[in-house]
What we know:
Pfam families: Abhydrolase_1. By secondary structure, this protein is of the alpha/beta class.
Amino acid sequence: MSQVRQIEANGLSQCVEIAGPADAPAVVLSHSLACSRAMWRPQIEALAKDHLVVAYDTRGHGGTAAPDGPYDLELLAADLLGLAEALTLPRFHFVGLSMGGMIGQQLALTAPGKLISLTLCATTSRIPPEGRKAFDERIAAAESQGMAALAEATLARWFTEPFRAAGRPEVEAIRQLILATPVAGFVGCCRAIQPLDLTDRLPAVRTPTLVLAGQDDPGMPPAVMQTIKEQIPGAQLCVLAHAAHLLNVEQAETTSGLLRSFIGAHGRG
Length: 269
């Protein structure tokens, strides 16, 4: 049974869902841009059997407040550190997908003592110039037409065509999360991750790291994840077949199994 709470941390009203035994090792789940903690539903249920799971809504998303920007990656990491302090989590396993994985890299570089392990899913360590231009275009569309203007193209990147064509309820659920994202939060977080350039700093990461890639992810393909794997000493890479960007949804059981195995191997650190 999970509990949803509003917590004031880092000057922000943050929405967090907590599940699992209070005395178990903690696992923090950080979602993608234009989503919410709800995208982690399969993993919350799977991990809460043996861990204290903390799935939170990033600034500007879900039930967390969406103040006007500017946001930056350091601020998003500070939000999570404030939340961890409010929940008295001295150390935790971290799992982040896409934007969540960028926050995880920032944490591993600036607050490594907080992390027992780090799992980076469908993310990148650098946004290239063409990617930065794409963010400008998405921001312009959201500000002029709302999040509905982005929904179809986003779903096409996030799920493989067979998964979408099968009429899976998960696709519609994610569509609703996209539509529900406040434009201010979306724009703020786009601006926060748009200048991302951490690749050359990753060799300093000493946290045990698992890298998960979707074989069919058009935006952050396995080659991008391979770069992260090569830069972080000792990192492991696993490529999931029949999965695009939201690999944790499209291949929920496989993702949950890999997380349970990796996190379980590192216990309380």
